[in-house]
Design goal:
Number of strands: 0
Largest sheet: none
Distance between the termini: 31 Å
């Protein structure tokens, strides 16, 4: 019986999905109750919803182009933290965790693909 080995290397998509879910939830309160921040809340919800969908789909399947594009999510969270009126460290922490998750989910070249090239 052959033993299957598992690796934690491809689990970064889950970390990105959790951060995207938290950001999505954090945008709901200002959207409903704060009239002045509705536009920013809608933008945050849209960004988080997109990141959640991409992380649960193509990023989970380790597609290389998706991995490159997902770096926009932590960068956008850092920009949101800079441009909010109250300088919020929470978004910087979430951006760092999302960046780690994106890095952790980097695609790995399989040995079969290397053999087919040569």
């Amino acid at each position: 019986m052959q033993r299957k080995t598992t690796s934690n290397r491809g689990r970064g998509w889950l970390l990105v999905a959790v951060v995207a879910g938290l950001v999505l939830l954090s945008g709901i309160y200002p959207l409903v109750f704060d009239r002045e921040d509705r536009v920013m809340a809608a933008a945050i919800i849209g960004l988080a919803g997109l990141a959640l969908g991409v992380s649960a789909g193509p990023l989970r399947q380790s597609e290389p182009s998706t991995w490159k594009i997902m770096w926009i999510f932590p960068a956008a969270l850092a920009l949101v933290a800079v441009f909010l009126d109250a300088f919020q460290i929470t978004y910087f922490v979430l951006a760092a965790v999302a960046g780690f998750g994106v890095f952790w989910s980097r695609p790995v070249a399989s040995p079969r693909s290397a053999e087919s090239v040569t």
